[in-house]
Amino acid sequence: MRLGFHYHIPALNKDGCIHTMGFLGRFIDSLADSCQSVVCFLHSPTPHEVPLMDYRIKFSNVRLVDIGIHDSIPKRTLRYPQIKKSIIAYRDELDVMLIRGPSPLLPNIAHTLGGLPIVLLLVGDITLGIDELSEPQWRRKLIRIWSNWNKDSQTRVAKNCLTLVNSHKLYTEYQPLLPELVEVRTTTLEAADFFERDDTCTSAPYHLLYTGRMNKGKGIFDMVEALAILVNSGMDAMVDLVGWSEQGDLIIDEMFSLAQAHGIHKRILYHGYKAVGPELFAFYKQADIYWIASQSSSEGFPRTIWEAMAHSLPVIATRVGSIPDFIKNDALLVNPFSPSELAIAVTQLVETPALRQKLILSGRKLAHENTLEFQTKLMVAEIESWVARHAKKSAQ
Fold first, then answer.
1. Whole-model pTM?
2. pLDDT tens-digit map of 61-102
3. Shared domain check, 230 and 198
4. How far is Cα of residue 184 from the mean position of the Cα atoms in its chain?
5. What are the E-state strand segments in the chain?
6. What are the backbone dihedrals phi and psi of residue 40, each rounded to the nearest 5 degrees, phi first?
7. Range of the domain at 279
8. Please, which residues bridge with residue 348 across strands?
9. Phi-psi region of 384 (alpha: psi -120 to 50; beta: other; left: phi over 0)
10. Do 215 and 364 share a domain, yes or no?
11. What is the C-alpha to C-alpha distance for residues 358 and 260, in angstroms, rounded to an integer?
12. Are 358 and 215 in the same domain?
């Protein structure tokens, strides 16, 4: 199968190799392992994004088509006539186009492809979380108008193609609307990534780890407040933060200011962005508990939870998005916006070895069912079946 692929995360050619962010690169490589060829229609990174392009695509059957700089959405939209030419130039070399969304150019690209079979992989809802943006009210209003238009256009495309969703909430929303809908799971986890141990929290200080994007919606401030509660109760605990913030976002400074006000700033270590793979996974191996305090209903299922479980960490997460759908009794779930509940869950894990060990074992077992090798094979099989049905329908 000759697969085309588009998403708005950028990539670049460097020293004869394709580089992109780790989570996307691993996904593309897993597709290439099951396809004859993969042609990626991706933006080039801005200067701020270049350091994030730390994953080198391993498979030689992957080709990168640069569709221009990853600048603002209005600029990308105005530049689409030029992008369209690049897509048309490769259209006859493809059997199917996989578009990961939501993505700004999804409706445009789908229209450009004409009769080529299209598969959408939807991993979120673009209309949610707008009120959480640190933008002026007038700008949020414009963003909401555009987001609603983009989602409506995306739905019209989805009615005529195969749609894969990685969220049970999205599946429930789209089930009455779409004739070809399949629920899948997305991950960056490979079988070789697993790290087995029987227990954590065997000695203080206890290290609480969060990895991922640094923004308010991930509950960073709630983690600081929870740490203050734990320290005031007498627990010797530390927080390790690994990830990146958006350009111009002052959340790290604001977070440390809050921690300093509580007198716990020396107990928080910010390690910056680390590449997916050994560099990132070293932090999971050294941690005692993984926690994520997401606040937004737009949260899908964070890939970092699979990574934590694969590294034998007990997990604490909030009841938002698809997290409760995928995790039943394999983690401690608390309500969002509740530092006190986070602190209680940490205390429960530290003081109850039997519970901790049970979650480590069941979480690792669950993660084994959600590796890239396993999930991508299922996804590719669905795509191949759809392409065959589309060809049969077209021939009638």
1. 0.86
2. 999 999 999 999 999 999 999 999 999 999 999 999 999 999
3. yes
4. 14
5. 2-6, 11-14, 17-20, 37-44, 55-56, 62-69, 96-101, 118-122, 162-165, 181-183, 206-213, 237-244, 268-270, 289-292, 315-318, 332-334
6. -100, 120
7. 191-368
8. none
9. alpha
10. yes
11. 35
12. yes
